[in-house]
Amino acid sequence: MKKMNWRKIRFSGYITALLLLILICLIPGGQECFRRLAWSLLPSPAPHQLTVFDEPGERGTAMGKKFKWEIRLLDKIYIRHFAPRKTFPDYQRKATRLFEEIPARWKDEVEGLARGSGVDTATLKLGNSFLDMGLNASGCRQIHADAENGFYHAHNLDWDNLGGVGNYLVTIVRSENRRERLRTVHITFPGLIGALDIINEKGIAMSFNQLGINRSGETHYPVFIAIRDIAENCKSFDEARVRIINIPKGMPFCIGLSSAAERRSSIFERVAGSENVFERPARDGIVCADNMEWGNRRTGDIDRIVRESKITGWHDIAALLRNKKILLDCNIYSVIFDYRNNAFYLASGTVPAALGEYRQFRLFD
Questions:
Q1: Do 190 and 71 touch, CB atoms closer than 8 A?
Q2: Most buried pick, 52, 87, 116, 300, via CB within 10 A?
Q3: Beta bridge partners of 253
């Protein structure tokens, strides 16, 4: 009996797999079907949760230790691809200078993050300011609605899935702040000290949409960090409004601000090449945003769709966030803050996330 030639068998298997992948790519819609099949075979991950206190260095170290492998993975497959290898050190130096210019607590926190995770400090500083420097682009959708049964601040985070692993990295951070800062709950990813979505104990909530790329690369305060700083310190809509309007020069943005306690909401836009911030207040209790400058838009699908819908509870907001004319295919997570009912609802673990399950979490004890 002849011995089996395992080398030939392995080689034949590789060739067969390669031909199968080529065939999938040639079939219309094949790549999408394959991607969905692959994700369906993996367990749907729940978001990470971490409670931290306010001493910056200790906070950063705690997060770095808890998410050590996630931060190292992002360093290898994501952060280091922001810029060509030749210019990457220049951006690291620029990020390092930026963190010398802003309040020292943020530098201390990033350096603690580096100690805890074992990732280079300059790289993490770049990871916390790359969007401000114009090194990436993202989407996003926001819906704020004052309804009979609640005040809802909702956001779809639409990104490029963080090198393909974004499903597994969505993180809820609870800040039990001292030093007179307000308690907050925010959504982020390992390695980011700023917030993508945040709400404080007074019901002040903010979310970020990108509104173009910062072609000049000039920035004086990372927007994600500014959002977190505002939420930790502002007890009213007007306090937060003034802070947003005066965010130092930098990237274009679209920041949604709401106050559930005051039943107020606005969208603030700063377009590329301008230092001015335009405010668009809610009308009839509703305000929406995407990634288009409102004044130059040709269509208003998101605003029209929301205003034509009956909103009685958070389920209606979820239905809007997964509406095919609102939802983007790269939606990593979808969050709905419901401050009046001390809850928030977060969909994550699949892409697009808003088509999946919304898990309910408490806001504050």
A1: yes
A2: 116
A3: 210, 270
pLDDT per residue over 79-120, tens digit each?
A: 999 899 999 999 999 999 999 999 999 999 999 999 999 999
Question: Residue 106 has which token pair?
Answer: 């943020």
CB atoms inside a 10 Å sphere around CB 67: 22
Q: For 246-326, where are the alpha helices, taking DSSP H only?
A: 301-307, 314-321
Main-chain dihedrals φ then ψ at residue 340, nearest 5 degrees: -60, -30
10: three-class secondary structure by DSSP: helix
For the chain, the average pLDDT equals 89
Residue spans of beta strands (DSSP E) within the chain: 48-52, 141-147, 150-158, 171-175, 184-188, 197-200, 204-210, 253-259, 264-270, 278-281, 286-289, 331-338, 343-348, 358-362
CB of 56 closer than 8 Å to CB of 112: yes
Query: pTM score, two decimals?
Result: 0.88
Joined tokens for residue 281? 């207040």
Band (pLDDT 50/70/90 cuts) for residue 216 is confident
Report CA 130 to chain centroid distance, whole Å.
13
The dihedral sign for the CA sequence 94, 96, 97, 98: positive
- Of 57 and 24, the structure prediction assigns the larger pLDDT to 57
What is the C-alpha separation between 54 and 302, in angstroms, rounded?
38
Is the predicted pLDDT of residue 11 greater than 60, yes or no? no
Nearest C-alpha neighbor of 207 from the set 253, 167, 148, 245: 253
3-state DSSP call for residue 360? strand
